[in-house]
Amino acid sequence: MSEHMTAKEKLTAHENTLKIENALRKMKNRDTSVQHDPSIYIDDNGKEFKTTERIIKSVTAPTDVIPTDEELFGNNGDLPNYKFLREHFKREGKLTQIQVLKIIKMATKIFESESNLLHIPSPVNVCGDVHGQFYDLCKLFEICGDPDKTSFLFLGDYVDRGSYSLEVLLLLYSMKINHPKTFTLLRGNHETKQMTQHFTFKSECLVKYSIDVYHESLKSFCALPIAAIMNKQFFCVHGGISKDIKYISDVDKINRFQVDFPSHGAFCDLMWSDPSNEFDNEPYGINNKVKDFSENYERGCSYMYSYNAVCQFLERNNLLSVIRAHQAQDKGYRMYKKTPTQQFPSVISLFSAPNYCGTYGNKAAVLKYDVTTMNIRQFSSQSEPYHLPNFMNVFTWSIPFVAERVCEILFSVLNICTDEELEMDTPLSKELARSLLEVQNENDRKRLYALMKSVSSSSTTSSATSSTSALTKSESNNSLSNSSRRSSSSALSLNKDKKSIQGSFDDENITKDNEGEVEDNKDVSKTLDNTALRKKILAIGRLSRMFHLLRQESEKVEQLRAYSGGLTLPKGVLINGSEEIDKQLSHFERVRLADLSNEAVPPTAEEQSQEEDDKYRRLWDRVVHEV
């Protein structure tokens, strides 16, 4: 064949041969040794896990030991031992209700003696939202040090969302009792009756202790200070500035001893306000067209403050920056646009709850400040014991699974007949035939047979299309003979509380003796129409599909509810069905956007009731449509 090739074709073939030989030579000399063990998995943080072994080989059982007053408060009974308490809570331990109330009351007494606006010297560690994430709080103290050796300033939001709000609160209060001057706790927007009822703190108190603990906690929230000046340079508050507060001295004019915040005004703004979404792009100056305070549509109350409003507030009060919390941050913190005069971030946002609500995937951050340096320390979330949503017990949680499996079993048991077998009539069992034979009267026998059919097919009455006639309790009692009552007492007992029993009378399915007499020792060829069995199979199948659908959607809804961190879902999620729910189950920014409705002021009780009714009505309509 090469004899018929042109010179150009021969040259091309020779070049291809050389390329193939070079490729084979390189493959032969390639290092085929394994560079990485495929049985080793490395996560995003560089931690290695062996896929051939369990990640968690054993789990320590929760302690059931209740500490004595001597262990918790010492021999003098004056100060709680917060180091002992921290280790006790790590083991999922509990206290007595008397001990819990004592700690809360001791902390409340200290809070009541403090002013609205505190003055904090440096050095100090400034911390943002904690939200009931106890094990992450323990990590925070590992990073920053013990309160014995360093000062702390917390900016509020200690409760709700997480499963350990009480543990967080009791640990922080115990530290405050031991170090009243160097351990400072400010109030956040979640430290109110309205928020704790709407989210998880109240239900947590009821599950773990009682309503008395919840009420005493509300009293302590009312006494918490609301702002602080750190090192005479930084205005520290949970939310932000207010248009009603020109000077920091105005903070002391607020009546903070309120269980809920007003819907507007200075107190509301300090807890609820946020920087505007275009804060970093806004101009500075009196003549700019940007509003200093605009409606906070994300929160449903208070304002969004502009860059210009913050700069004017800082200049007016001779301050360097505003340090606040209140908003989840992907990195755990955010430095906003610098001031024109000091060239220092005008606003610093801190968030100290890593992987917020178990879904955000965010880092947490703490600001460590002394006179000369300012450092941001980040940390990731820590493993913690799992809790079912809303502290649900495992039996309630498992009901949908059990119901679905039972329906599957029933469907499998009933679905053993072929279509041909269902078209045929099935002979009655000897026991059933004998019970019918005991009924001497032909009309009574008809009624008893119809009664048995109605009982057996009662689950499919909605799908039956044949005409039915009612057999009332009194009619059945009057028409059945004594012997028929004895033989059918179990069937009648199932229906004694019903107003009527519907049964289909099909004379063709009742084999009658021509002379009206039947002998017990003769074979009886009575048959049972398999239509009822066919309908029952279809009904159980529909019921199984309904349970399967409800369980799947319930799991998605509970997952999204957990993502949202509250008892309600983001508005509009259920309107567009399961596709919208699937779309919402995503990461930080999308989860944050889905969570915005839970970051707002909760609806009233009437609005919540109406929303729940609408939600279940839409879900039921969808289930009916699917089935």
TrEMBL record:
Stored InterPro entries: Calcineurin-like_PHP, Metallo-depent_PP-like, PP2B, Ser/Thr-sp_prot-phosphatase
Any one Gene Ontology BP term: calcineurin-mediated signaling
GO function terms (MF aspect): calmodulin-dependent protein phosphatase activity
Keyword Transferase: no
UniProt key word DNA damage: no
Catalytic reaction(s) noted: O-phospho-L-threonyl-[protein] + H2O = L-threonyl-[protein] + phosphate
Residue ranges annotated for the Serine/threonine specific protein phosphatases domain, each copy included: 186-191
Top-rank EC class of the record's enzyme: hydrolase
Region (Disordered): 458-523
Keywords for this protein: Hydrolase
Compositionally biased residues, Low complexity: 458-494
SUPFAM superfamilies in the record: Metallo-dependent phosphatases (SSF56300)
EC annotation from Swiss-Prot or TrEMBL: 3.1.3.16
Segments of skewed composition (Basic and acidic residues): 509-523
Stored PANTHER family: SERINE/THREONINE-PROTEIN PHOSPHATASE 2B CATALYTIC SUBUNIT 1-RELATED
Similarity section: Belongs to the PPP phosphatase family.
Name assigned to this protein: Serine/threonine-protein phosphatase
Species of provenance: Pichia californica
